[in-house]
Amino acid sequence: MTSVVVENLTKEFKGGKGETVCAVNRANLSVAEGEFLVLVGPSGCGKSTTLRLIAGLEEPTSGTISIAGRTVNSVPPSERDIAMVFQNFALYPHMSVHENMAFGLKLRKVPREEIQARVKHAAELLGLQDCLGRKPGELSGGQKQRVSVGRAMVRQPKVFLFDEPLSNLDAQLRVQMRREIAALHARLRTTMIYVTHDQVEAMTLGNRIAVMKDGIVQQVASPMELYHCPANLFVAGFIGSPAMNFFQGTITRNGKGILFNAECGARNKESKERAGFQLHVGEAVTPKLIQFEGKKVVLGLRPEHITENAGAKNGESRQTLEAVAEVIEPLGSETYLYAASAGNSFVARVAGEHRLHIGQDISLAFDMSRAHFFDAVTERAIN
């Protein structure tokens, strides 16, 4: 079993003024054999440090790291049976592609015939057969990254570690390499841990995703679970593009049910019009909100759940909001509409055929059956 288990892992550094900086704070992760786990979060959240701790390039302050059931805290990197792919390719410029891929095996005294077979197999999988005699300076960015992956592949490690391997590539190459890494995992079925700050990479590559912030693991779940059931305000806002819309407000109740009363947004604080807006909460989410009556909460709604109002029916008029178009981003099949109402700015995803213009008054329908609510104090999801 080539699983990776991290328990209460903590890494502290000394800051420039002698202060203690906690890069990783009691992280717990369990990566199953053959799983593709992605660590995602903003810069400085501790994801790369966590990867380097697993690789043995950093020594943990506390906690344990186990690979294939063996605690490896005191095991040097060369004996952990892992292979790491770095952001900057790290290829030897004076060596050919074949020599770069074979170099690590030569250091380990692997027989020449086996080296040849492994390099050939990796080159075929990665489409590098015609590049084996070239030097890195003769390769494109995508080819260099494939060589870097191939060098890790020939090691036949128990675990692959990827540290933001696509960050230096242009947008088109990133999409291509993303597909290639996903296909590689499907073929090899080797345990892989992948670090990125790009939530699109995380959503499209990972079997599961671990979202980190300030050294703390916020949530570990499948991509769709993260998207539809975020554990807290940070995960909800980080996963998804464009990001989830958030509205501050309070919960009240009347004869018709539970209402969300949005506060007047910051942009309207100096205006004579101080009122926010009011939305009726759907029956599906009403029970969990009753305990928050009179308290502050945050309403979250994804852009695809705010659309042009096609007409009020079955009580849907209670969910209609009048807004003003501020920015329009046409993308062909769909349009991102950045709008404002009562000082609150938000983004809606509307059909591409709609012709909109800046400053236009528009009626938007909020699908409250897809709404998320968060405790304004703890920022945890209300569920």
Could you walk me through the main structural features you see in this protein, from its secondary elements to its overall organization?
By secondary structure, the protein is α+β, with helices and mostly antiparallel strands. It is 23% helix and 34% strand. It is built from nine helices and 20 strands. A six-stranded mixed beta sheet has the order 6-7-8-3-9-10, sandwiched between helices. Residues 268-273 have low confidence and may be disordered.
Task: Chart the SSEs and their pairings.
Layout: E1 4-14, E2 20-31, E3 36-40, H1 47-55, E4 62-67, E5 70-71, E6 82-85, H2 97-107, H3 112-126, H4 141-153, E7 159-163, H5 171-188, E8 191-196, H6 199-205, E9 208-213, E10 216-221, H7 223-228, H8 233-238, E11 245-254, E12 257-262, E13 277-280, H9 286-289, E14 296-301, E15 306-308, E16 320-330, E17 334-341, E18 344-351, E19 361-366, E20 372-375
Parallel strand pairs: 3-8, 3-9, 6-7, 7-8
Antiparallel strand pairs: 1-2, 1-4, 4-5, 9-10, 11-12, 11-14, 12-13, 14-20, 15-19, 16-17, 16-19, 17-18
Radius of gyration: 25 Å
Order of helices and strands: EEEHEEEHHHEHEHEEHHEEEHEEEEEEE
CATH class of the largest domain: Alpha Beta
Widest beta sheet: strand line-up: 6-7-8-3-9-10
Task: Tell me how many strands there are.
Answer: 20
Shape: elongated
Are there runs of 5+ residues with pLDDT below 50, and where?
A: 268-273
Which CATH architecture of the largest domain would you pick?
3-Layer(aba) Sandwich
CATH topology of the largest domain: Rossmann fold
The span between the termini is 36 Å
Quaternary organisation of the protein chains: single chain
Residue-averaged pLDDT, rounded? 89
Assign the CATH superfamily of the largest domain.
Answer: P-loop containing nucleotide triphosphate hydrolases
**Residue fraction in strands:** 25-35%
What level of helicity do the residues show? 10-25%
- How many domain regions? 2
